[in-house]
Description:
8 helices; single chain
Amino acid sequence: MEHAKDHLFALFSACQLGDRAAFAKLYQLTAARLNGIAYRITNNRESANEVLQEAFIQIWQNKQEYQAMKGEVFTWLASIVRYRAYDKVRAEQRRHQYDSVEFNELDTHSPWQKLLNTEDQVHTSQALEHCLDNLEKSQKQSILMAYLYGYSREEISKHFNSPVNTIKSWLKRGLGRLQLCLNS
């Protein structure tokens, strides 16, 4: 067991010096166990494989951050995989939450009503809803996804099958139009 720890440490030390062959060997020696950790968290083989790939990219990019005095190499690798896996699970939960959210233009219930309850807040909610209704559909949906449901620009981009820069433009223009409307 101690020999394996020493071997991983030696390989990782070589990785820190930029040795790609050592990184490939490190991957070969640890990928199966790390994938198992990712699978136990995500409970999905494809997601676990994605997590492992993303984690190894992060490991290579952040290889200088490993500090031997804080723990074993495998423990450090496993913690990166765990964090990535939990991030993946949270992203999937948000995506599924969005699946149940309908953007029905005829819906008379404001999405803000669940957050607001005083008379002033209800008036603000109505004004906001009025202004949102004046936006283009893509701008309105992007703003709701980003600021009400917490989706990232990348997640919104995937939903609309549009480039991230397009989403950023929709959000920026939409927020500008909202501000003008609310101030008038």
